[in-house]
Each structure stands twice: as structure tokens, then as C-alpha cells.
Amino acid sequence: MSNLNETSRIAEADSTLEERLGYRFKDKDLLARALTHRSFVNEHEGKGYTHNESLEFLGDAVLGFLISARVFCRFPDLKEGELSKIKAYLVSAANLVLLAEEIGLGEFLRLSRGEEKTGGRKKRALLVDTYEAVIGAIYLDGGIEAASTFVGTHMGPRL
To answer: pTM for the whole thing?
Structure first.
């Protein structure tokens, strides 16, 4: 019964996060993976969990591409150096942590007990990495259009 309650609680939390993201995952495992920190996987070794680091890698690349394209289209007459500065700001940790905090991403992280005790839910690096992992998960789940819509919705006002 405890596992059923935990499963129900996780499903409800994931649904809440999907509302905040403005995206419903077809493959819920991608969302779970995007939210799972390496410390959680290490603490639950052998239980089949996968951490989010490869999704973070992918999400970083997808975000970079989408922001580059948006900046290029929005400011077609700017020089390359100026475009690069705008992109650098938009994909910076300082900006991404604000976006992660706006949707309350820290509430949904899957962390080890130790990471939880040291304030992991509010750690800048964890929030940024997870935000990028979520973008990677959205890309894998819904394609470039879904990722572009997400980025446009959440980052568009900053352009």
C-alpha cells in the first residue's frame, strides 16, 4: 500500500509540474529521468533509476540552438558578436536559475537524502542542470516544435 501511495503522490506531482511547464509528456519516464539527480540513483542503486546528466547535455544543445535561432530572427541586423552576447545572457546560469525558480522546479527534484539535507532543492547548479534536462526530455518526447514552444513560452518575454 505504501508503494501505491508513493506512486500516486509522484504522479500528482508530475501532473502539477507538467501544468507549470505547459507541456504534457507522452513518455512519463522521460520527465522522471529529467528530474532525477545522480545522488538519488546512487542512493537507490540497482532499482533501475537513471540520472538526468545525458538529458542535460542534450537540453543544453537544444536550448543553445533554439535561442540562437530566435536571437538571429529577432535581431537580423546585429553583428555576430552582439548576437553572441544576447545568446550568452539568455542561456546563462543566472537566467536559467530564475526560470527554474519561476516554475518551482526545485520542488520536483529527485535527490538523495544527503543532497536534500544540504539544500539541494535550492542549489543553483542543480536547478540549471535540471532545467536543461527538462528541455532535453521535452525534445525527445515531442520533437523540436515542442521544445521550441516551451523555450518560447518561458524565455520569449526575455527577448
So the answer is: 0.91
Q: How confident is the model at residue 1 (pLDDT cuts 50, 70, 90)?
A: very low
Give all domains of the chain, ordered by start, each with its CATH number.
2-158 (1.10.1520.10)
Q: What's the rounded mean pLDDT across residues 97-121?
A: 93
Catalytic member of 115, 129, 132, 141: 132
Catalytic-role residue among 60, 115, 129, 141: 60
Query: Would you call 19 a catalytic residue per the annotation?
Result: no
User: Is there a catalytic annotation at residue 141?
Assistant: no
* Three-state secondary structure of the chain: CHHHHHHHHHHHHHHHHHHHHCCCCCCHHHHHHHCECHHHHHHCCCCCCCCCHHHHHHHHHHHHHHHHHHHHHHCCCCCHHHHHHHHHHHCCHHHHHHHHHHCCHHHHCECCHHHHHCCHHHCHHHHHHHHHHHHHHHHHHHHHHHHHHHHHHHHHHHC
